[in-house]
Specification:
The protein has 6 helices and 9 strands. Helix 1 packs across helix 2 and helix 2 packs antiparallel against helix 3. Strand 4 and strand 5 form a beta hairpin. The protein has one domain. By secondary structure, the chain is α+β, with helices and mostly antiparallel strands. 42% of the residues lie in helices and 26% in strands. The strands form 2 sheets. It has a 5-stranded antiparallel β-sheet with strand order 1-2-3-7-6. A 4-stranded antiparallel β-sheet has the order 5-4-8-9, with helices on one face.
């Protein structure tokens, strides 16, 4: 379910509740954060993680007007999972400045090589357009796994699932733990 202005607290109210909300989101993201490779992490988003990001953006930018709040809602609601899809943010986290440009160049094409596999089904990730110029990719990518009806139902009952990168320069397969699977199933059935 999309977030609306009534779900967002004024900055003053948020500031008072920020520490508690932060603790909740940190615990939630710990379950939903998947290390795909040493420099690549994927965080599955949901209503709570996106609400947190909106509140943090409003706080940092001192945004309070209804129109500006709605702009932030529109941006982050585009990342909201629904009954037919999971949503995630993929981070390429290179801290060595000497390596950043080369890694972002080497990972061009990554958007064609990320899959969610469970049983005999696999769903290829759809990446937000415009986040690669052909010479390098952005260090932050927005990803969606869209389920047709049959695979969606099978995912809801799968005993295991894996995220797989099949890029020529970066290959990995990472099992989703039981807590992560349960949390993601919640996104599809909320």
């Amino acid at each position: 379910m999309k977030l609306s202005a009534k779900d967002i607290w004024p900055n003053k109210v948020y500031e008072a509740a920020r520490a508690e909300m932060r603790s909740h989101v940190i615990a939630l993201k710990a379950v939903r954060r998947i290390a795909l490779a040493p420099d690549v992490t994927l965080v599955f988003e949901n209503r709570d993680t996106l609400r947190w990001q909106i509140q943090e953006m409003l706080r940092a930018e001192r945004i309070e007007t209804p129109a500006a709040v709605q702009e932030e809602l529109d941006v982050y609601n585009a990342l909201m999972p629904d009954h037919e899809s999971l949503s995630a943010t993929l981070f390429i986290e290179v801290t060595d400045e000497a390596r950043i440009a080369q890694v972002l160049h080497d990972l061009v094409g990554l958007e064609e090589t990320l899959y969610l596999r469970f049983g005999s089904d696999e769903i290829r990730a759809s990446f937000e357009a415009g986040r690669s110029d052909g010479a390098r990719i952005s260090a932050v990518q927005y990803v969606r796994f869209v389920f047709p009806p049959g695979p969606r139902d099978r995912f809801l009952t799968a005993h295991e699932a894996h995220l797989e990168l099949r890029h020529p320069r970066l290959r990995s397969s990472v099992a989703l733990g039981p807590e992560a699977l349960a949390s993601l199933r919640g996104d599809l059935t909320a």
